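Allow me, if you will, to draw on your knowledge of protein folds for a short while. Thank you for your consideration; the sequence and its tokens are set out here:
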Amino acid sequence: MTKISIIIPILNEAETIEKLLNHLLENSSKQNIVEIIVVDGGSTDGSLKIVSGRAQSRSIDLSTAQEETAIIVLNSQKGRAKQMNTGSRIATGNTLYFLHADSFPPKDFDQHIINEVETGNFAGCFRLQFNHKHWWLHLASWLTQFSWRACRGGDQSQFITKALFDEIGGFDESYIIYEDNILINELYKRKQFKVINKKLITSARRYEKFGIWKLQYHFWTIYVKKWFGASADELYSYYKKNIN
């Protein structure tokens, strides 16, 4: 039986994390989600306090005699790869679902993931929709329904069986950025990636902050640099100078 552990890395996500936790609980079945693991990388904006207030040990709902979904909070070194690996190590579900704190999966996302896993699709993501009306972001969102490697990214979320995740070795912690894409590359090599044709809504806040074309240019540059063999340190240096 497929059981899902949701893993969310956060760093200063006080504006969105409680809304996301509510969304996840309201749009999934507690029979399918064994736990939501929030891994904090050193927040200073009250994020940790918000999540800690929601954290609980797994409990029983006496009215239905069913277990409630546990919300677990962990501390980790900063860095999404490190944070997500930390969460994966304590996860008890046999399927992991990695999710950004500003991305909201569709209704019944858990069942959609389970349906894929139980038909032999052991990893994949949802298609994406930005919460912005700019034509480029609309087009970029539309393209994510296709299986092309160039249309993938961490904002789409990532489901993967724990067995396959462990086989790959988890996220490569030498990458401060681009860690999602390194894992996705490994999945495409194995021809093990399924795009679920349901929309996940993600925030365009970074595009709004930096400017759509400016940020897109930097993302493309990072992608091309990696294509031509740039190291993890070189990618992070470029990101830190131009985006972070």
User: Anything to note?
Assistant: The chain is about 40% helix and 20% strand. Residues 4-203 form a domain with the Spore Coat Polysaccharide Biosynthesis Protein SpsA; Chain A fold (CATH 3.90.550.10). The chain has two domains: 4-203, 206-244. Strands lie at 4-10, 33-40, 60-61, 66-67, 70-75, 95-98, 103-104, 123-130, 158-161, 194-202.
